[in-house]
Amino acid sequence: MDMLDRDLLFLVGLVFFPLAFVALVSAWADRRFPWAALILVVLGGLVVVWAQLTHPGGGYDWRTIPDLLIETAARYWPR
Description:
Blueprint (H helix, E strand, L loop, with lengths): L5 H24 L5 H20 L10 H12 L3
Helix pairs in contact: 1-2
């Protein structure tokens, strides 16, 4: 296992996008600027793009994300 698990970082970056949407809706409802949403989108985007660009074999295929989630969870699940 790598010291820096690209699969895990890719999945964490993908989780940031729904959280950004929630932060955006919350900021819109409170009539304030969506700083948290902006930060989450930027961080999530940077992590996902970095993981895509540095992934051995040329990047991730979006159709395999469910399999990637299961495989990554299985690596970190205590035995």
